[in-house]
Design a protein that fits this description.
- The complex is a heterotrimer.
- By secondary structure, chain A is mostly helical.
- Chain A contains eleven helices and two strands; from the N terminus they run ααααββααααααα.
- Chain A has one domain.
- Chain A has a two-stranded antiparallel ribbon.
- In chain A, β1 and β2 form a beta hairpin.
- By secondary structure, chain B is mainly alpha-helical.
- Chain B has a two-stranded antiparallel ribbon.
- In chain B, α1 packs across α10 and α10 packs across α11.
- Chain B is globular.
- Chain C is α/β, with parallel strands linked by helices.
- Chain C contains nine helices and ten strands.
- In chain C, the strands form two sheets. Chain C has a six-stranded mixed sheet, with helices on both faces. A four-stranded antiparallel sheet of chain C has the order 2-1-4-5, with helices on one face.
- In chain C, α3 packs across α4, α3 packs parallel to α5 and α6 runs parallel beside α7.
- The chains are: A mainly alpha, B mainly alpha, C alpha/beta.
Amino acid sequence: MTGLIYGLSALGLSVIFGVVRIVNFAHGEIMVVGMFGTLVLFRQFGVDPLLAMPFIAIILFGFGYLLQDWVIRRVAHLADHMQFLLMAAVAVMLIAVCLMVFKGDAQGVRVRYALDSFAIGSLIVDKVKVYAGVAALITSGALFAFFRYTDSGKAIRACGDNYVGALVVGLNVRRMFALTFGIGCACLGAAGAIMLLLIDVHPYLGPAYTLLAFTIVIVGGMGSLPGALLGGVLIGTSEALAGIILQPSLKTAFSFGLLILVLLFRPQGLLGRASR
Amino acid sequence: MLSVLIIVLYFAYVGQAWNVMIGFAGLLSLGHALFVGIGAYASAALFVHFGVGPWLGVFVAIALSVLVGCLIGYLGFRFSIGGVYFALLTIAFAEFTLIVIDHTRWLGSTEGLFLPVSNRETVDLLNLRGSPVMFYYVILAMAASALVLCRVLLNSRLGYYWRAIREDQDAAEASGIHLFRYKMIAIVISSGLTGIGGVWYAFYYNNLFPETTFSTGKSIELILGTVVGGVGTLFGPIIGAFLLTPLGETLTVLTAGFKIDGIKQFFWGVCVAVIVLFRPSGVWPWMSTLLKLDGRRDGAKP
Amino acid sequence: MSGAASLSVRGISKRFRGLAAVSDVSFDVSAGAIYALIGPNGAGKTTIFNMIAGVFRPDSGTILLDGAPLVGKRPDQICRAGVGRTFQLVRPFQALTVEENVAIGALTWTDDVKEARDYAGIVLKLLGLDDKRLSYPDRITLPDRKCLEVARALATKPKVLLLDEVMAGLRPTETDRMVGVFRKLNEGTGLTILLIEHVMRAVMALSRHIVVVNYGKVIAEGTPEQVTRDPDVLACYLGVEAVE
């Protein structure tokens, strides 16, 4: 279940990389911002995270759009490591802002149905997890539909496939990139809102999720949307398994080990495009 | 005041070590704290469990750091992992090691590895136990030697080849440069030097925790100076360290009264962002053009 | 500059994802000769060069330098074995001065940086770039950058020099100067030269033997006089500038 949400957040990363070719190191931090936003909505207005999801997504869309258009675009011509560093700087700044506003403690939400569960046959599943999973699936589905069927979606894919070609054909690439980054961040917002149902948030949550998202995207394949989802489920499941078989605290180590292996033997991931 | 200077020199030292890998060979390592940690834990464990002094322990530290460095470098080359993926690989290795050490009782796991507290009065150079002044001279010597070493390397055949590789790998190869060998040499030197830095780190701070030694945050912290000062230049890491560390400390002091967490981090983020956006090649190249020191003997890009 | 070597290309082929870029190409360049490789764009000439220089591995066939096989070696090994090459789109090291660029070439046979720089000075003087020694590649003209590319390759003391369209974009006087340099090198040291060229002026002036390639295959071979009369060659070259 958690895997699906991982997948959703990873989708955002994959989309951004596939098109804008920026490695978004601030990934986890943006999601954390989304989570905090959801928290605020819940605390101040009593809005259930699932309902808050679209709003958070929209707000983060705007944030992402502006970030790309005003800031990231300027470093597109620089070496890879410079772009990476810029995103790392953004990440650090976001963490710092969260620290300043929300302090360092973990905080969470308690929804009414937090302790309810569904009974499916002999399995007992938390209602919360089910709702979360379903929400993630629906959002992912909406994203797929967008890319497949809408003009903007196709335009964005064109930019990703063939940058020069897109320019020649007259697509407003700058706008496309901004849109893409916005969408990526919106994914993160949605994922964050859903995530808040499952875990508490604190400012330092970001880096772990950034790495997790990268692991997922690399395992599933950079630039491949189904791959990101598949990767998310895979990692989510294997983490859970690893937590049961090995010690729980070794879960993350297992994921990293998997990352190293995939980086070595199949950097394009399970479903990724062959050319890098 | 002295402690600030010591920290500055430490970052000047590891900044230079990191610089060799990226500035000279073009390999982005974002998990460099891994080598600090290896050096630190190796020498500390030897001292605590076997009573082996740091001057011997440093050889083990170097050997281990270089071994891991070679492993990562070999993997990167063998499987043609470049740029971003390589950086991720280094981060993965660092975080992986963090978790492994977290679970290693013998190395103190999460509670930390503690060296016997030194007698701050006497100066025991052999066991690196002593006053801060002693550590100051040691790290000063290290940073200065690193500078001399880098200068010598840059002006040697090695330096020429590295700069060629950094500029254009294919043209370099066509000009008779064996890419794998020279990249590996850079990695060996970089990881080895950083490992030595780790040994100093362990003995200066007296205690090691996996979280603070191997974390990605630490990796980023130690490259900040070099990035700001100028990647690939001779003086960049030093200028960067001298600029950022005192600024950071002043900031901590200034904001201590306000009780706002995170100001310092925010400041770091802003610094890096400003440099990347406006002066990507770093402060040192900018300064040297301003001061008309256009010798360009130091490897800076024009 | 050192002595020359012979270059033998025997039956090399290369396919890129189903497209046959080069099919069964063979020719022999004897030591000390100047051969030209001509043909329309996309005929596969640079691919042939890339196979000789080790950038690609031929799917089949052999390449021999003085009888020693080159296939399977890395580009840097081939360079040190004595094959110098230039790139069609010049690739100087931007952060190094002209002199340092050429010194890189010399460092293949010496460890001493000073010796390499001194030798670089000699090569630069030969090519008339001596006054630009301390400039950076982005500050000099394109013809000079082409000279730099050649200088760097020459500094490796090659036995065979592969020149990929070095005359493109040069004015006639500059072309003549380059031709003069190569001729002097060839006559003086016997350096074997294989050049890809479209500029017929240079081809006719320099080469004693021409190999014509089209669609990845050799369609004609011979002296300049023979080749320019060959009907197949004329057919594929209809419209190209004739010899002046």
